[in-house]
Amino acid sequence: MSIKAVVFDFDGLILDTESNEFNSYSEIYKQHGVELPIEVWGQCVGKNASAFDVYAYLEQLVGQSVDREKLHLSKSALYEKSMLEAELRPGVREYLQSAKLMGLRIGLASSSPRVWVEGYLKTYGLLDRFETIRTADDVEIVKPNPALYFKALEDLNVDASDAIAFEDSPNGALAAKRAGMYCVIVPNSVTRQLTFGETDLRIESMEQMSLQEVIVHLGTQR
Question: Most CB atoms within 10 A, among 45, 67, 91, 175?
Fold first, then answer.
């Protein structure tokens, strides 16, 4: 086993935008006297926003049309408020630093738009940590299709069998395994409630195991 690269997802893994997004929509649903089941929401986590029409589902539950523009503004306000004090998930900076010190190639593959991903990376001072950043802008089909990972691996000039993908969602993990990569999942407060398919390792936080320990562990699994 010779790991040469690590490729990170973004939403929910580096910064937990996903839990705040789900909680914001959940609040909108509660205001209408219904609930947004995590099982339903989970089907779209790791994909792009168009994968699930959250307002159509709300209309289905309440049995009438809703003012989508008004609700979107309310949801956005809730989300932005929740993100004001959001911090990077524990261990992210340490993993990126360790990867650099170990001489690993470092990439990012996200189903979100580039402006979204790079905007947050700039805010948290991480934009220059990645040699390549592949987003929804670069492919026709996002995760669980492996196209994003294929592009990132091509940019980094490494084989899939020599790379580890770090993911937080079932759709992301599926994309990584379809690409032929090792996949380590680090679920967040929302995605830990979902059912994952094939993965190589699950940790609850990047503080649970160092990157070096992860690589050693994966080497004993094959």
Answer: 175
